[in-house]
């Protein structure tokens, strides 16, 4: 399949990809435009997830690329970032599903699991046979998860007993497994567990009334004496440092998703500006509209340069927490500004689903906050700059 560069990639960062990566990206882009874009507005309005996209995503390799066990070909973190961008420029919720499935759930097992656990679970998650969720955030613990985690794990022989609550857990209303992070009552350290959602005492309740990422099925989880065998404890996840290693990997991809969301809104605004006539000519010919679109493109281009470099550093083994934190903080802030300008360019039509901008505008709010708020990420970068921690 021929590869057509995005017009919104103004400085041609896609040229850094290999020929094989471009071919795969073109296939993903074509499928998203053909199969996903036409249906997402309806699913967004109904607050439902299109489960029929899971198998095609798996068949395309989208759930496989990051892991040695399942990658269909050798690929770069820059390529995987562009995959996240492509998903988000069509729909941020489908992108979020992939981020949870591939980055957080599979990533937890890839980073914290034993070789045996990796062999058992990663292929199942990559094929879509098993849908995963990631249970870290709690009703009273979000930004302070490193210290404030309240869910507990107690060892009883060859089993662990989990008690507590989780909140905002994506995919959790229909996942087959959820990675639950809990504090060991014995040593006070955070440990990870692969919890089948059919386990007695596990209950997930959908969070209703969302105005952002409505397609994502977020849930409140209650764990009441949930018994998990030692074989389902992540064998190499023994403290919150291991949890943070998962988040470090996925935080940069959230930044890529933010760029994709900004591009989705910008491209919709450009289409609208070319088609909408006022005062006898397309509004694209008005100076104020061009100013808004150029500001959008400037934010996108600056953010894209940052996330490309962060992914290159990941490939080189040079990425640190502060690098992904700066990318996430900057790209999501720029995205929030960009989707607002795109909505402004569409006037009143920018708040209805027909023109797509309104969906990107609303979904940006969730990306701005999840996987580390802007404020928490600035503190991570601030600590690296000054050598002083200012978290409390």
UniProtKB/TrEMBL annotation:
Co-factor(s):
FAD
- One Pfam family, short name: Acyl-CoA_dh_N
Q: Alphabetically list the UniProt keywords.
A: FAD, Flavoprotein, Oxidoreductase
Extract the InterPro entries matched here.
Answer: ACX4-like, Acyl-CoA_DH_CS, Acyl-CoA_Oxase/DH_mid-dom, Acyl-CoA_Oxase/DH_mid-dom_sf, AcylCo_DH-like_C, AcylCo_DH/oxidase_C, AcylCoA_DH/ox_N, AcylCoA_DH/ox_N_sf
Report the domain of life of the source organism.
Bacteria
List residues of the Acyl-CoA dehydrogenase/oxidase C-terminal domain.
245-385
Q: Which residues cross the membrane?
A: none
Domain Acyl-CoA dehydrogenase/oxidase N-terminal: start-end pairs: 19-129
Q: What Gene3D superfamilies does the entry give?
A: Acyl-CoA dehydrogenase/oxidase, N-terminal domain, Butyryl-CoA Dehydrogenase, subunit A, domain 2, Butyryl-CoA Dehydrogenase, subunit A, domain 3
**Signal peptide span:** none
Indicate the segments forming the Acyl-CoA oxidase/dehydrogenase middle domain, all copies.
Answer: 133-226
Read off the PANTHER family from this record. ACYL-COA DEHYDROGENASE, ACYL-COENZYME A OXIDASE
Provide the family line.
Answer: Belongs to the acyl-CoA dehydrogenase family.
UniProt name for this protein: Acyl-CoA dehydrogenase family protein
**What species was this sequence derived from?**
Agromyces tropicus
